[in-house]
Design a protein that fits this description.
By secondary structure, this protein is an alpha/beta fold. Helix content is 35%, strand content 22%.
């Protein structure tokens, strides 16, 4: 009964699980925090990874391992394998102007066709263009471009400044599909776009198939890893027809598709998944915080808020909350604000306000499902995850708003479990 190890190197922390492949049970785990900020020294991720692995009992008895991690972050290396600057994370928005520059140069439809994406500040290609325009000396030094999970895999395999074999950088389809210079349909890098962003070519990680492996310095099998959304879908066992709806600080809606998706509007990002399929994804800014702010306004706990919402009738007596408290990504309305309409003496009750908040949040996520449907992605079952999915009101109201059968898996570290599942497949 071999043991495998899966990692979730997220924005906030590093989580490690050790899984017994004969039972699927998590037998050990570890965790370490990451520093806050949108520009972070990757060495902090390396320290957290080694600490979390040590807390989980080391790699000594591990047959295979794999790393899932936050997508899009720019890790720039020079020819000696040294870090050139702090990594720019997915949530660093300084490259918004660079994203628009790329759209102006190539056109949204052309970029969507070539990469499955229309650039926004999250994606790696925009960060490379920002580096070229604002730190040209650093851009000129870039010999290799990696993503967070690529770089951590490289380090844990025994490479780094003391063994700088840049050609040993590897990644997977899901993380490559979030760069903006990889084509999910062909499986090839678009080096012309890379050069247009950075100003020159560079070493890029070799893209491994979902069932392909390399080895570490001790001969253990190492999986391709995955971006966090793809790893979570794998950990959940999502299959074509499933849509994963994550209700956290922000919201994501991603579906497993057997065909690549291209959306020139930029609403749907045409990512790949960690199983050989594709993972078109829609992001929203307003999710669990909608319930947080409304519960605080009503002066109730989350449990009491849920009870209030369930005491109201569907439709909230005509009360409607448009929950754009932080602007919105889908639709793209960065300067929008929230609004409450339909207020009458009869409709303006605590119960209706609570339900209107739940319905408004779910409708925002439902817009993501509609965008997927419009592109022909078949949707049969919704898997609700994240902190917001633990609300009884959300679980009971979701089917009528989303128009799908809804399942709520037990809370778990699904990114790390997805990475462990990938490693388990390699270990047989």
């Amino acid at each position: 009964m071999p043991l495998v190890l899966g990692v979730d190197s997220s924005t906030q922390s590093c989580k490690v699980v050790v899984v017994d492949t004969s039972t699927g049970a998590v037998v050990r785990s570890g965790r370490a925090s990451h520093p806050e900020g949108t520009s972070v020294d990757p060495e902090a991720w390396w320290s957290a990874l080694t600490a979390a692995i040590a807390e989980a009992g080391s790699l000594d008895d591990i047959a295979a391992w794999s790393i899932g991690g936050q997508q899009h972050g720019l890790v720039a290396l020079d020819e000696s394998g040294a870090l050139i600057r702090d990594a720019l994370l997915w949530n660093d928005t300084r490259s918004a102007g660079a994203a628009q520059d790329l759209i102006d140069e190539f056109g949204a439809e052309e970029l969507s066709t070539r990469t499955g994406l229309v650039p926004v500040a999250s994606f790696t290609i925009t960060k490379l263009r920002w580096l070229r325009d604002h730190e040209p000396e650093n851009a000129a030094r870039v010999a290799a471009v990696a993503l967070p999970h690529d770089w951590l895999t490289w380090r844990l395999r025994g490479f780094g400044p003391d063994n700088p074999v840049l050609e040993e950088l590897v990644t997977d389809r899901s993380d490559a599909s979030g760069t903006g210079y990889w084509n999910p349909a062909t499986g090839e890098y678009d080096r012309a776009l890379l050069a247009a962003a950075l100003g020159h070519d560079a070493v890029l990680p070799r893209v491994l198939a979902h069932d392909e492996s390399v080895t570490d310095a001790d001969g253990r099998l190492v999986g391709a890893g995955a971006g966090d959304n793809a790893a979570a879908a794998l950990g959940l066992g999502a299959v074509p027809g499933d849509v994963v709806v994550s209700i956290g600080t922000s919201g994501t809606v991603c579906a497993v598709s057997t065909t690549p998706i291209s959306d020139p509007s930029g609403t749907v990002a045409g990512f790949a998944d960690a199983s050989g399929n594709f993972l078109p994804l829609v992001a929203t800014l307003n999710a669990a915080r909608v319930a947080d702010v409304t519960a605080a306004l009503l002066g109730v706990t989350h449990s009491e808020f849920s009870d209030l919402a369930l005491r109201a009738s569907p439709g909230s007596g005509g009360l409607t909350l448009l929950p754009y408290f932080e602007g919105e990504r889908t639709p793209n309305l960065p300067d929008a604000t929230a609004s409450l309409t339909g207020m009458t003496l009869g409709s303006t009750t605590r119960e209706n306000l609570a339900r209107a908040a739940v319905e408004g949040m779910l409708r925002g996520l439902g817009a993501g499902l509609d965008a997927l449907r419009d592109l022909g992605v078949p949707l049969e079952r919704a898997l609700l995850i994240g902190g917001g999915a633990q609300s009884e009101a959300v679980r009971r109201i979701a089917p009528e708003i989303l128009g799908l059968a809804v399942e709520v898996p037990e809370p778990g570290e699904y990114v790390a479990l997805g990475a462990a599942r990938q490693a388990a497949a390699l270990a047989g």
